[in-house]
Structure to design on (315 residues):
């Protein structure tokens, strides 16, 4: 195997410990290992932009656009395709929206027959002190909540390499990434699309399960009528009440109003590209898009999906 050095367009945030191993195997690719990120192996000519947030004397958060892996693959197209799939798994399993599946540059180290290599690391800095006047380091940004714990890579990667993830999950991560890139139209549009796709899928699955349970039953005329007149309002009220026995309007009127506000904003952007005056909408701003994404995540959770998305902090 040999070291493979990768430059990415975005940083990956890691949670590191002094006792972490030098390398961790990927369960989705048994012959691949990821090298401890805070290493001195990156060769000259490759970008090494890093950030570090100490936690204590033995652990820290660390961000880098460089990634080092150990691999026996020699063909660049094969290696690149596998790497993109690994990055996609890391992105979805950690919920770190900024992880990119695009690759900026790949370099190769010297081949070795050894099954492991010695990794020279940077020393952990001392923990930041708190001054007498009450100075505290800046609040940890949202990316720390989704930092990849290096020692848990094996568990995170314990899925098939060709795993596919729900469309709504990808859209929501893209929406959060849009906030970081100040693309607020994208953030709101994708958040609304994630909710629409999940809601329709959940309700259709519930109807299919009901039909399967009563195999001899004909098509349900009530559901047919509800589906024909389905819109944002009755999708999570009348239709969900009929199929799931639950109504967002009846259970959480505030969230229901936020959901309608998200749908209204999405329609304004899709039809005019702007958010004009009229009924309440989310503003095309950082805080407006953050609020929109938070509503989307809460609706997903209402449908029983796992939350845990790391959403940026409003200014």
């Amino acid at each position: 195997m040999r070291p493979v050095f990768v430059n990415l367009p975005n940083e990956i945030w890691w949670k590191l410990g002094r006792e972490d191993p030098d390398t961790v195997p990927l369960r989705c690719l048994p012959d691949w290992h990821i090298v401890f990120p805070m290493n001195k192996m990156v060769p000259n000519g490759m970008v090494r932009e890093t950030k570090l947030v100490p936690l204590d004397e033995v652990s820290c958060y660390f961000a880098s656009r460089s990634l080092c892996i150990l691999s026996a693959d020699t063909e660049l197209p094969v290696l690149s395709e596998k790497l993109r799939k690994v990055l996609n798994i890391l992105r979805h399993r950690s919920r770190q929206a900024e992880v990119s599946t695009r690759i900026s540059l790949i370099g190769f180290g010297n081949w070795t027959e050894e099954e492991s290599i010695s990794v020279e690391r940077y020393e952990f800095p001392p923990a930041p002190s708190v001054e007498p006047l009450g100075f505290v380091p800046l609040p940890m940004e949202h990316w720390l909540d989704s930092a990849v714990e290096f020692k848990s890579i094996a568990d995170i990667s314990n899925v098939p390499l060709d795993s596919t993830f729900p469309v709504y999950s990808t859209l929501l991560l893209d929406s959060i990434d849009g906030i970081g890139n100040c693309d607020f139209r994208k953030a709101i549009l994708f958040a609304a699309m994630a909710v629409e796709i999940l809601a329709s899928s959940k309700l259709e699955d519930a109807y299919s399960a009901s039909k399967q349970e009563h195999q001899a039953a004909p098509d349900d005329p009530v559901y047919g009528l509800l589906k024909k007149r389905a819109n944002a309002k009755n999708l999570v009220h009348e239709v969900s009440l009929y199929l799931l026995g639950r109504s967002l309007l009846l259970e959480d009127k505030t969230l229901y109003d936020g959901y309608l506000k998200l749908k209204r904003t999405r329609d304004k952007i899709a039809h005019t590209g702007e958010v004009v005056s009229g009924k309440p909408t989310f503003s095309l701003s950082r805080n407006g898009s953050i609020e929109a994404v938070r509503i989307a995540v809460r609706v997903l959770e209402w449908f029983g999906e796992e939350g845990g998305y790391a959403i940026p902090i409003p200014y």
